[in-house]
Amino acid sequence: MDTSTHITMGFGLAGLAYLDPTVSSNPDLANAVLLGTVLGSNAPDFDYIIKLVKGNGMYTEHHRGLSHSVPALILWSIFVSGVVFILQPSVQYFPLFYWTLIAVILHVCFDMMNAYGTQAGRPFTTRWISFNFIPLFDPMIIGAHFIGFSFWFFGFHPGLTFAIIYFVIFIYIFIRYERFRNNRKYIMDQTKMEGIYTLIPRVWIHKWDVVLETESTYYVGTLTHKELHWIHFIEKHDPFCPYILSSLKDKNVKHFLANSKHTYALFVPEPNGYEVRWIDLRFRDKNNYPYMAVVKLDKDRNILFSFTGWMNRSKKVKKDLISTNKGAIQL
User: What residue ranges are annotated as transmembrane (predicted)?
Assistant: First the structure.
């Protein structure tokens, strides 16, 4: 989920904590738990420091990696609750710890529900776990929390209020999961093609992005209600293309490919060499694919420089996709 959702859920969990008599009977502990749940709900994303120290490429590969793993759940909870306890040593530590732990666990669980996923199974597996049925920002989840905050503000019991709010949210999550399962089966029944099917949730529950990867082609489209509309048909790049092979030596491309899926590469001739772009087809903005790794090569295919992340070069990428793919992509 995005940062605003994690912060909002931290405050919501602080309200839910009032169901705990130990918390509700001690204002100092309630304040400490509030700080613990807000920080704990964001702690796994403190791996942003990787971007500051090691750069965007390393961050692209390792964000939601070790920081979202099984051992990290405990370590973040101990760290955050320990810092809060140092600031407020008069409160009971154990309630502070377990409410912080709940916040950290929910952070990772909600991150697993969207398209980006996490490596929550480490150290047992490095596989990216992504269930693909909740968008990065979900107005239903945010809206439910703000309804709860309104009731809290007007004097309703925060524990009971957020018990109801989270019950409603988990029903909503179950409905979204069932919609995801049914939609995936519907698409497979409609297309009757062998391949890898990926659904990417949009903000509204009735609309989903779809990527189908077959042996030779990527199909990218949308499913709205029960209407499947293919937008792009992209022939797979030549894996033996010398320019694409040269780009694979680049560290930013390696970072990008470590946690990307349905990746398409294209190369574009330039006056002094070539530009190679690796694009993740899961993340589409209208007709554009902003999540990519870009490598500049000289005429001898030596790497000049590269970068990776979210690029605001959509129109140029769209134009080059058309010309490079020789009509295979339909826009």
Answer: 70-90, 96-116, 128-153, 159-175
3-state helix, strand, coil in the chain (%, to 5): 50, 20, 30
Which phi and psi angles does 250 have, rounded to 5°? -75, 140
CA dihedral 175, 137, 110, 162 (to 10 degrees): -70
Instruction: Say whether pLDDT at 30 is over 70.
Output: yes
Question: Which of 9-13, 44-48, 101-105 is predicted with the least confidence, judged by mean pLDDT?
Answer: 44-48
Q: What is the dihedral of CA 171, 173, 177, 182, to 10 degrees?
A: 60
Q: Which of 7, 11, 12, 29 is nearest to 20 (CA)?
A: 29
β-bridge mates for residue 276, sequence order: 267, 295
- Looking at residue 2, its amino acid is D
**Tokens describing residue 323:** 């010309």
Q: What is the DSSP string of 246-280?
A: HHTTSHHHHHHHHT--SEEEEEEEETTEEEEEEEE
Q: What is the DSSP string of 128-157?
A: -B----S-SS-HHHHHHHHHHHHHHHTT--
Give the tokens for residue 18.
């009032």
Q: Which of 226, 198, 218, 201 is nearest to 210 (CA)?
A: 198
Tokens representing 231? Answer: 């937008």
- Position 329 scores a pLDDT of 35
Cα–Cα distance for residue pair 108/240, rounded to 1 Å: 38
For the chain, give the mean pLDDT: 92
Domain boundaries, the chain: 3-176, 194-331
pLDDT digits (tens, 9 = 90+) for 49-86: 998 888 888 888 888 999 999 999 999 999 999 999 99
Q: Where are any strands of DSSP class E within the chain?
A: 196-201, 207-213, 217-224, 227-235, 263-270, 273-280, 291-298, 303-310
Bridging pattern class, strands 291-298 and 196-201: unpaired
Residue pair 291/309 in contact (Cβ under 8 Å)? The answer is yes
DSSP 8-state code for residue 46: G
Is 80 exposed, middle or buried (CB count within 10 Å of its CB: 0-12, 13-18, 19+)?
buried
